[in-house]
Amino acid sequence: MRGWLSPDSCSVTKKGYQANMSLWRLSFTVGTALLCGASAFAQAPTCNETLWKHVYNQSRLVVQQSCVTVTGTVVDATTNEKTHEKDGVRRETDGDSYGWLKLDQGQEKFINDANKQSQGGNLVFEIICQNPTKQGDAKTTCTGLKNAVKVPSVGSHVAITGTWVLDGENGNGWFEIHPVTSITVVKQ
Question: Which of 49, 48, 55 is nearest to 133 (CA)?
Fold first, then answer.
């Protein structure tokens, strides 16, 4: 049966068939991307599972999804703090960097009421073992880890990949990406 962009519409010669088949595949791929969006061909995110052995007090974090990628804009998490940091992240005593991500539209499931009430409506992200550990019982947590994840400047549009968790410590109850595997600056 011959039809629009069917392989049967290819020419008889082997060389012509290959050329037309390649054109058919290209047309199919472009058509699918236009109809379904480029995300139809996106790969699943990859997380560094070995980071978990460097997470301080793991029991406080309830895993919602082991590996996700979220997008949004880095906002200043130190706005209401006594010490304002130029890069907008808090330096936690356990060695982690604590930042905020204003999520892009359509990702509302990654925040809850506690994020809205206590975190300015932002998703928390924590880059583990990025700073000196000052907390006595956390000092050994970061041993052997050189975390290369960099915090982009406030206002950067980024994709953050890591584990989506609920922070249940002391009744916090907000969602976080913790630990962060990667942060990539992306165009909006």
Answer: 55
